[in-house]
Design goal:
Number of domains: 3
Number of strands: 7
Largest sheet: 5 strands, antiparallel
Strand order of the largest sheet: 1-5-4-3-2
Distance between the termini: 55 Å
CATH class of the largest domain: Mainly Alpha
CATH superfamily of the largest domain: Hypothetical protein, domain 2
Structural class: alpha+beta
Helix content: 40-55%
Order of helices and strands: EHEEEEHHHHHEEHHHHHHHH
CATH topology of the largest domain: Endonuclease III, domain 1
Shape: globular
Strand content: 5-15%
Oligomer: single chain
Length: 290
DNA sequence: GGACAGGGTACAT
DNA sequence: ATGTACCCTGTC
C-alpha cells in the first residue's frame, strides 16, 4: 500500500459527499471509504473535519475526484441571499461537494437509476461491476471491479443485463453501450460542447432524458449549472418555496424558477437541497394540511 | 399477500 | 403538453 498522504481540508464532508446519491459504489469499513476511481484504487478517511487521509491512490487523485479545488466560499457567495431553506440545507451538510466522476460509469449508472431507490442502484452497479468489469484489487477483503466498458456491456447483451435486475433499463443500457462501443456516439466529444449542446447531445442516447443527462453532466462533466429535477427535488421545491402558493406551479414553471433563483452554481444548490430533503426526514413527518 | 412506490424515459395521443 | 407502459424489488 502507498504511503498515506494527509491533506488539510476546509468545507469538506467525505461521508456526506459519497452518500449523497451522486455515486453508488463506495464501500465503508469503519472510517475508511474505498473503491475505484476508473481503474485506480482509492482509500480515504476523514479522522477530523479539517483532515483527509489518503491511504492509497494518492493526493492528486483524491483532490481531483473529490473536487477539493472547488471554491465553496465563492460558490456560496453566488447563492440567493435570504433563502432560508437553502441556508438550512447548507447548515445540514456544508461540506457536501460535487464529484468529478469518470464519464462513462456515471452516465451508465444513471441510466440504470430511473424509478429506483439509491440502495437498489448501488446493488445493480456492484453486480454489473463484478460480472462484466475487471477485477483490479482486493481491499478489506472486498474484491473491487472496474465499471464495465461500453464494449463489455454491449457484448453482454440485453438478457444478461436483465439478469442483473435492470428490468426495462437493460435494453437502454445495452443500446447506449453499443452506440459508444461502435463509435457511433463519441462520449469524449461531449466535453467540448457548451452546456445546452452537451445536454441535447446526451439526450440522443437511449434511456437518457433530461434528468439523467443533467445528473451526468453535473456529477461527471463538472457542469455546475445543471439542475436535475427528480421527484425528491420537485417535492422539496414545492414544499419549501411554494407551500403557500394559491396554485402550484407547473413543472416547467418550477424549472424556470430554479434556473433563475439559484444562479450559476445551481447544481450545488440542488445537491444540498436534495441531500437535506432525502436524509433529514423533513418529508417523512406529518403532511396533514397538505 | 397484493398493492404501492422508488433520483424517468419513450411513445402515443 | 399530458397520459401511460415499461421491469423489478423492498415495504406495508
Amino acid at each position: 500500500m502507498d504511503a498515506t498522504d494527509t491533506l488539510v481540508v476546509e468545507d469538506f464532508n467525505l461521508a456526506a459527499t459519497l452518500n449523497s446519491g451522486q455515486v453508488f459504489h463506495w464501500h465503508r469499513e469503519g472510517e475508511m471509504f474505498f473503491n475505484l476511481v476508473g481503474d485506480q484504487p482509492l482509500i480515504v478517511s476523514q479522522p477530523t473535519p479539517d483532515r483527509l487521509d489518503v491511504h492509497a491512490g494518492g493526493a492528486d487523485l483524491a483532490r481531483r475526484y473529490l473536487a477539493l479545488d472547488h471554491d465553496l466560499n465563492k460558490i456560496r457567495r453566488t447563492l440567493p441571499k435570504g433563502d432560508k431553506p437553502l441556508r438550512q440545507a447548507l447548515k445540514f451538510a456544508p461540506g457536501l461537494r460535487i464529484l468529478r466522476q469518470p464519464h462513462w460509469e456515471c452516465l451508465a449508472s444513471f441510466i440504470t437509476s430511473s424509478l429506483k431507490q439509491v440502495s437498489h442502484i448501488r446493488q445493480i452497479s456492484l453486480t454489473l461491476r463484478s460480472k462484466f468489469g475487471t477485477k483490479i484489487a482486493t481491499i478489506e477483503g472486498v474484491d473491487l471491479f472496474s465499471y464495465p466498458t461500453p464494449e463489455a456491456l454491449a457484448n453482454a447483451g440485453e438478457s444478461a443485463l436483465r439478469a442483473c435486475g435492470l428490468g426495462y433499463r437493460a435494453k437502454f443500457l445495452q443500446q447506449t453501450a453499443a452506440l459508444i462501443a461502435d463509435g457511433a456516439f463519441d462520449l469524449n466529444a461531449v466535453a467540448e460542447l457548451e452546456d445546452a449542446a452537451a445536454l441535447e447531445k446526451l439526450c440522443e442516447l437511449p434511456g437518457v432524458g433530461p434528468k439523467i443527462a443533467q445528473c451526468s453532466l453535473l456529477f461527471a462533466w463538472e457542469r455546475l449549472g445543471m439542475f436535475p429535477i427528480d421527484v425528491w427535488i420537485e417535492r422539496a421545491l414545492r414544499e419549501l418555496y411554494f407551500a403557500k402558493a394559491r396554485r402550484q406551479p407547473s413543472s416547467k414553471a418550477l424549472r424556470d424558477f430554479a434556473w433563475k433563483h439559484f444562479g450559476p452554481y445551481r447544481g450545488y444548490a440542488q445537491q444540498w437541497l436534495f441531500h437535506h430533503a432525502r436524509t433529514s426526514g423533513i418529508f417523512s413527518r406529518s403532511r396533514k394540511d397538505g
